[in-house]
Every structure is written in C-alpha cells, then in structure tokens.
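We include this case.
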Amino acid sequence: MPETFDQTYWDEHYDGHAPVAAGPPNPYLRAAALDRAPGTALDAGCGEGAEAIWLATHGWRVTAVDIAETALRRARGHAAASGVTAGIDWIQADLTTWIPAEEHFDLVCSHYVHPAAAPGDLFRRLAAAVAPGGTLLLVGHHPSDHHTAAVPAAHVEIGQLAAVLDPGRWDIAVAEDRARVMSHGGREIPLRDTVLQARKRPGR
C-alpha cells in the first residue's frame, strides 16, 4: 500500500524516531547560499531545522515550514541550543495546501519534501515564491536511491522539477542527479539525489 504523506504520517514518523542532533546543513544548500548576500529565505519542509538554523546563523531571515509539530518543537530546541534566538519564523502548515507569498523570498529551498499530493503543484508554488533575482533550490530522492527504495512515492526525477520553470524567466545553474554519502548514527549511507538550482531573472 503506498504511503500517504499527510500530517498523521509525519507525526508518527517523528514520534517514532529519536531527535537528530543539530548538524551541518545539506551540502547543496551550502553551495547555493554561502557566497550570496543574506536576505529572506523560505525553508519548505524544514524538518528538525538544520538548514533553517544554518541560514539564520549566516544572516538570513528564515520562514521555516513543516507539517509535523514534533519536528518543529525539536527544531526550536536545536535553534536555542545553537544560540539562535531570532531570525527564524517557525510555521506549522501542510505544504500540500499552504501558499507562500509570491515573489517574496530571495532564496527558496526544499530538501526531500514528500507532499501528500502530486509534487508538481507544490514545486510551482515554491518557484512562484522566489523574488526576481532570487534562487530556487529543490533537492529530492532520485528513483535509484537505495536508502528510499521502499518508498517510491518519495522519489522525484529532474524532469519533474525542471518542468515547473518557465525558461523565459529562469536560468538553471544545476539540473542533475548527484551521489553523496551521509554519516548517520556512526554509519555512512550512500544517497542518490535529484538537484535543481535556478535563478529567477530580474524583471518580468
């Protein structure tokens, strides 16, 4: 039976797993944001907050959204433990229906988000939220990723991501599948990711 990535699923997911210590952000986010002047950022599907916390410590004003209250509670705790007491607005919302302000954020990122509905609508709304001159970063599990092989509904291909972008408005910097190794619980886990990074052209 396929997974349904609704609030019940994610509440049970986080309640069934021990908190993850605040660690480094996703490396694709570091590459996309490290040399940029900080501004406003949207972290869609923020989980336990590693990316939002990293952005805030580098001067970004972050809106961090997740469906699971347990994840947000842990994220707030990680932020406090990291000395981040300002710069992040934590929002509990279902990304399947939540609509961010259009052309508002200098950076919009989403890492391994699994919406309850088809992801295309969500990706289009995230792209619409990027301000002119801003950056969109979408990272998902590639279908060949062994770590998520049992959850095919979590997979995304580069064509699904790129299809939401109007080529007349966007310059694509990265659109490819990438392999990396993640350390977790003393183990090294090989991952296969789908990565899209693009810049919205200034003006209309």
